[in-house]
Amino acid sequence: MNLEPKGELPDGFQTAARPRAGSPRPVRRKTKGGLIIPDTAKEKPAEGEIVAVGEGARKDSGELIAPSVKAGDRILFGKWSGTEVTLNGEDLLIMKESDILGIIA
Predict the structure, then answer these.
(1) Residue 48 Cα to chain centre, angstroms
(2) Which of 27, 53, 54, 74 is in the most buried spot, having the most CB atoms within 10 Å?
(3) Which pTM does this prediction carry?
(4) Residues 7-45: pLDDT tens digits?
């Protein structure tokens, strides 16, 4: 399995992300009633960069569904998302596209 940037992964919608140092980053939240939720009371998303993407998932009909992320995208994902692996001395996360919370512009 090649995990160089622009590489591909098997098993539809699988992605490999490089976690960003210093992540998770703080996110301030406020309720409708005006209460501020402290950082210690909520899970903070982690930030990373996509280094490889699988070909996509298949519908029951066999039609390929293309992934919505690509190598080089910066993403946010949940603290417990993915499976940690070390390849060529680099720590990576293998995760499903559904574990990605958002793409950072």
Answers:
(1) 7
(2) 53
(3) 0.61
(4) 445 455 566 777 776 555 555 667 777 777 666 656 778
- Residue 92 to residue 85: CA distance in whole angstroms: 5
CATH class, range 14-104: mainly beta
Give φ, ψ of 39 to 5 degrees.
-55, -30
Is the preceding omega at residue 38 within 30 degrees of 0, hence cis? no
**60, exposed or middle or buried, with CB in 10 Å at 0-12, 13-18, 19+?**
exposed
pLDDT over 80 (residue 83): yes
Residue pair 71/80 in contact (Cβ under 8 Å)? The answer is: no
Q: Are 51 and 71 in contact (CB under 8 A)?
A: yes
pLDDT digits (tens, 9 = 90+) for 44-68: 788 999 999 988 888 899 899 899 9
The strand order across the sheet containing 83-87 reads: 83-87, 90-96, 14-19, 46-53, 74-77, 100-104
